[in-house]
Amino acid sequence: MNVTSATPESIGQVRQELREWLAECAVRARGFVRNPVAEYRRWVENTGFDYPVSMVVLVDLMMLTISGISFAQRVAAGYPPGGLALAALALIVLTGPPCVILNFPPRPALLAVLTMASVALFLAQPVSFDIAPLVLIIITGEIAAITRTVIGTAVGVAMFAELLLFRAQGHADGVAFPWFALGILFGWFTGQLLNYQRRYLYQERDYQHMRALQAAGEERRRIAREVHDVIAHSLSVTLLHVTAARHALQTDQDVDEAVDALADAERVGRQAMADIRRTVGLLDGHPAPLRPEPGLDDIEDLVADFVRAGMRIEFRATGDPSQISPGLGLAIYRICQESLANIAKHAPGAQAEMRILLHARHIDLIVRNTLPAGTRARPGRGMGVSGMRQRLAVLGGTLAAGIEDEHWQVCARIPTTGQFPCLAAAEQGLRSVLTTMSHKPLTTMSHKPQQEGV
């Protein structure tokens, strides 16, 4: 590398950076003259300490006011105005507006040195009722509020040592000395409180960010489950209708039956598209058209869709559905929808049976179907069973799925809330008595297909 040729380039680069920095400082100086509060706000935001701008401005004004009064005290006492007092005042001024104009971040060591030097110059010219040591109290609190506890404590000890030194030389008021010493301790304590509050604020922001991420992830999973349930149901029913139409055209040449099956497939597809648009619309934040979520009363229509598509389903529900909340009703509906869609997908032509038992303190849902010949139990890789378990886990329910007595069976239990055990037992007993007296269940719904499976 040629050092001789590189040195002028380096010097030119340094000069260019210096000119740019001076130009930026000139812009900030003009902005400070026009609107000092705005420049203070920009400077405070750049420091990253998150203290109110009014607090920072108030601290600097207090420092300048106390220094100005201390300067006036020495001029009134007969000291030359252009001597140590003016230099002390200039040092205090350097800790305020120049840092804003030059865009210097607050450095604890620099603030401590400038302040201690300023107070030393003031105390070198003792006066009666001197208030110059108040600057030590303020700067101790300021440094303790922006730095670590060890550094803040060291600065407080240094401030007290300086005050003690001038007290030993007789340059500090002996009556006010204990109050100044207590003031330094109070300033350090106040700064520590502000510092801890600032740290807790950062910690709370991190926690809120984590909670927001968790909530967003949970919402995405919920929307994914909703979309999966809607698509699985609609595609299963549509495929059944299309298969029925193909079967009618190939075997029976029954055009009317094929047209009916295709019309049902079209209706289910349009309904599924509307449901998907409503669910996906939650992602963009725009208000979706108000439409009630499906619930317990819609399960009968759900079963009817699958029956019209050719599935053989025996459905029965017992109990009082009026006490079921919309959230529980939606969960039961989605589990029934997913279970029937899985039967249509994995066991076409199977005989299905679905039971909904509404008890006083819980809800039992049982969906089972016959297994096709040669079927083996294989763990699913999709979102079906896991999605149903996640949906029930939110409500405190449980779900079991597997082969039992040559049938594939899905059993779900969801606890209900809002009832005391004694009232639930009384309600269940009364319901049993009424059922026995009437010789029929409270609610019975049954669907038997009009045609055999495809």
UniProtKB/TrEMBL annotation:
E.C. no: 2.7.13.3
Positions of the Signal transduction histidine kinase subgroup 3 dimerisation and phosphoacceptor domain: 219-283
TM segment ranges: 51-72, 84-104, 110-138, 150-170, 176-196
UniProt catalytic activity: ATP + protein L-histidine = ADP + protein N-phospho-L-histidine
Database matches in InterPro entries: HATPase_C_sf, Sensor_HK_TwoCompSys, Sig_transdc_His_kin_sub3_dim/P
Domain of life: Bacteria
Keywords per UniProt: ATP-binding, Kinase, Membrane, Nucleotide-binding, Phosphoprotein, Transferase, Transmembrane, Transmembrane helix, Two-component regulatory system
Gene Ontology molecular function terms on file: ATP binding; phosphorelay sensor kinase activity; protein dimerization activity
Pfam families recorded: HisKA_3
Record's GO cellular component terms: membrane
Protein name: histidine kinase
Species of origin: Nocardia yunnanensis
Taxonomic lineage: Bacteria, Bacillati, Actinomycetota, Actinomycetes, Mycobacteriales
